[in-house]
Amino acid sequence: MEKIKMTTPLVEMDGDEMTRILWKMIKDELLIPYIDLKTEYYDLGLEHRNETDDQVTVDSALATKKYKVAVKCATITPNAARMDEYDLKEMWKSPNGTIRAILDGTVFRAPIVVKGIEPCVKNWKKPITIARHAYGDVYKGSEMKIPGAGKVELVYTAEDGTQTKELVHNFDGPGIVQGMHNLNKSIESFARSCFSYALDTKQDLWFATKDTISKKYDHTFKDIFQEIYDAEFDEKFKAAGIEYFYTLIDDAVARVMKSEGGYIWACKNYDGDVMSDMVSSAFGSLAMMTSVLVSPEGYYEYEAAHGTVQRHYYKHLKGEETSTNSVATIFAWTGALRKRGELDGNQELMEFADRLEKATIDTIEAGEMTKDLALITTIENPTVLNSEGFIKAIAKRL
Ligand code: NAP
Ligand code: MG
């Protein structure tokens, strides 16, 4: 068989632990035999990040600006334990945080729906895609512990030196305080990414905040979304037969539970963090969730929504068998290959991505799956495969 040609490289960001093991298996078994794979390779494994003083992470993000499409393996975000484990020079920042800061944009997470893995929420028939704003709020907050009585204020000093103050609280004893921010520019690009993605995928867009309580902060999000919708997207949405719907966050949560799915739910940073784990667990498993960062300039970075599956990796190192689910990582590759095909007008590459996804889903629906899915499937007597066996079963179907 002649291999499928690629004209432009993808940015390939390798990662850590169990997902790094899966990464190589996926390439060897599912990609390289069929595609003349062209990638620009960046090793974001923690050892190499440490060797390069994390420059490799920055370089990989800059390469994504150049080539427009990247695929990323899960990576370790160092904590105190990792400092010792990897003898790190510094507690390097989260690579995802660094990449998002360079590319900007919004993270879209959607469950991979298969027959036999039924959502816990019975009326959910179609996937719910979470669009998480990836900048600011509590993730860029500053905090203080207030030791005792005293006054806390917000102070804005304009460039000309004039000050505006707002009382936070007159403390009469110990307490806590937090300051956070966002930028109109970032909210605008969040809104545009969401509206564009809704049009791309022909799904309704829901957005919710707590604007009744937060009359300036959250209300600004609501206003910016509405202004951009009215000015740039209203006609396009009507032509596509889709809807933009705004409501309060608590109302949205109640409606989501009662809905049948099939829409994009735009969430502020914290809401998106929390709700995406709820939605993914309710749909079955974190390992059955795709994740893509879409920048306002049209750069795409595909990844799995889960981490490096550290516990499985330690078993692997001890020579024990693992049954780690590679579906989300496979779909990160298919997402990136399909987008590469779309941008390059490479029909064969797009069709290959479709076929690999179908082979993956068919394998599970035929009852061959990893342990995490076998525990929750409605299929009787599923065959539980190990990490490699599952990838080989997909290869056989492919
Ligand atoms: P995790 O890697 O997502 O794994 C948590 C648990 O979820 C696993 O122990 C496993 O449960 C289950 N699980 C997750 N993915 C699975 C899969 N593909 N197949 C089967 N089971 C799966 O989270 P973590 O262990 O908290 O974090 C490990 C490392 O990942 C950390 O260093 C963290 O910084 C990093 N992380 C990276 C990213 C990213 O790069 N995007 C995201 C999150 C976390 P059982 O053990 O019960 O089988
Ligand atoms: Mg989270």
In brief:
The chain is an alpha/beta fold. 44% of the residues lie in helices and 21% in strands. The chain has 3 domains: 1-111 and 293-398, Isopropylmalate Dehydrogenase (3-Layer(aba) Sandwich); 118-141 and 181-283, Isopropylmalate Dehydrogenase (3-Layer(aba) Sandwich); 142-179, no CATH class.
Explained architecture:
This protein is α/β, with parallel strands linked by helices and 398 residues long. Helices cover 44% and strands 21% of the residues. The protein has helices spanning 17-31, 46-51, 55-67, 80-85, 95-103, 184-201, 217-240, 249-258, 269-283, 310-317, 327-344, 347-365, 371-374, 387-397, and strands at 10-14, 39-43, 69-72, 106-111, 129-133, 142-146, 150-157, 163-171, 175-179, 204-209, 244-248, 263-267, 289-294, 300-304, 368-369, 383-384. Helix 7 links the parallel strand 10 (204-209) and strand 11 (244-248). The radius of gyration is 23 Å and the shape is globular. The chain has a 10-stranded mixed β-sheet with strand order 2-1-3-14-13-4-5-12-10-11, sandwiched between helices. The protein binds NADP nicotinamide-adenine-dinucleotide phosphate (NAP) and magnesium ion.
Write the layout of secondary structure elements.
Layout: E1 10-14, H1 17-31, E2 39-43, H2 46-51, H3 55-67, E3 69-72, H4 80-85, H5 95-103, E4 106-111, E5 129-133, E6 142-146, E7 150-157, E8 163-171, E9 175-179, H6 184-201, E10 204-209, H7 217-240, E11 244-248, H8 249-258, E12 263-267, H9 269-283, E13 289-294, E14 300-304, H10 310-317, H11 327-344, H12 347-365, E15 368-369, H13 371-374, E16 383-384, H14 387-397
Parallel strand pairs: 1-2, 1-3, 3-14, 5-12, 10-11, 10-12, 15-16
Antiparallel strand pairs: 4-5, 4-13, 6-9, 7-8, 13-14
Helix pairs in contact: 1-14, 3-5, 6-7, 11-12, 12-14
Residues 273, 277 line the site of magnesium ion.
